[in-house]
Amino acid sequence: MNEFFAMGGYAFFVWGSFGATAFVVVVEMVALRARRRRALDEARLATPDSLTAATQGVL
Amino acid sequence: MTSSSWYRYSSPATFYPIAGRLIPWFGWAAAVMAAIGTWIGLAIAPTDFQQGDAYRIIFIHVASAWMSMFMYVVMAAWSALFLGFNTRLSAMMAQAMAPTGALMTLIALVTGSLWGKPTWGTYWAWDARMTSELILLFLYMGVIALRNAIDDPRRADRACAVLSLVGVINVPIIYYSVKWWNTLHQGSSVSLTAAPKMAMTMLTGMLIMALAAWFYAIAVALYRVRVIMLERERGSAWVGELQEVKSR
Amino acid sequence: MATASVSSSLDAGAVLPGVRWALVRDLKLAFRSRAELGVQLMFYVIVVSLFPLATTPERNLLATMGPGVLWVAALLASLLSLPRLFAADFADGTLEQIALSPYPLPALISGKILAHWLTTGLPVALMAPLLGLQYAVEGEGLVILMLALLLGTPILSLLGAIGAALTLGLRSGGSLLALLILPLYVPVLIFGAGAVDAVRAGLGSAANVSLLGAGLLIAAVGAPFAAAAAVRIALD
Prior knowledge:
heterotrimer, B: about 250 residues, 9 helices
């Protein structure tokens, strides 16, 4: 098992590559989720109250 | 399919829920593919007798490098569609591609450099592919920066579309000019993608990783295009009626 | 882009008069601000002269990097002067008038680009042999250096026009223009600087020079249309 993690002496480079990629991908997903939350908040603010009230009345 | 139905699908109000249903499929497919590809790349594929285990980096590097170039072409294709048919969705799709494309380019550069240290003995060599990737990153940055500098989204759409098209014409010219320059200056003889004897397991692993990159890019682009729609069309009736906007 | 090219191909007879009108107008304007043009040329000369001070006066090294330095300086000089192409006309509304004129817009823009090259690229190319001497470039190398710049600097003006039009009226105009345009200049830089290198290496520069020529033809045909599309976007 240790041999697997050692990667024949290239551990830093191999794990560094896979780790950096995973990190960047996670950062993109987290940032995107945060952006979606902001967009939803702003969409709620921008929705006219009358419209919300009307649809709720129908429901 | 008639042309009118194409236009119907290109309306944000119609596309938003469709994209929402597609995202989990592509997202999970990407996760599963990436897990299998990583397993093959790190554990199954045999150690290379020349480069040792360092060559395992190419499983990520090749997938991200392919994706980085391909996404620029797709972005330009959406831009051309937008300029030709003036469909808002095409412009939004082009906008949604750029950040992920830049990210793929960044991954290709970082992994290429981490591969270069044990193989070339240096983190950065002016190798033709690496140099082209660097310039591709600049091109992506240019599109993103132009988008951010323009306040009016309609003008930003059209300006970025023109820039992407000019860029995509230049990408092959840049690539061949850099390659030519590199051969004249006796660049490094080991190429990153001329992998040592492509064993069957290696090829399989690489293809699976490439598929993972594809699905990831599609999932993220669809997710981002939905966010862009929310940002741009807030206040419109269809956004107000969305479940996620009404709840809470 | 498509609509612009269609409408302009209808009155093909107005192309050359359009080019000439814009060329004469911009040259007149440039002549009035000739002091500014002199400053831009001085910028080129100074940048080129700084490199030996920053590195080494050793002749062999200077000869190796000389063509590259001259080309990078030419790129920067072109970049610095690009805002002049449209910005003033855009600010005072003249550009809108120009776009409404009966001449096809791509033709007018070609004229403006030609005027831009005559006032910036051409002087840079003509100065180059003199500056090449500072870098121990000699004989055939000097001729090829000038020839490559004569073929390459118009490409810089043509591509630059697209960037200048795209960034019209934007806050971060100058630095954004550099980010948009410099990556597109890469092939010109490689083939241009490579031409003199090839002479030095005894390989002959025919391939580089013909590639630059081909690039110039392609850019001259395509860039005015892209720039015209970008100008219309900025005016909307």
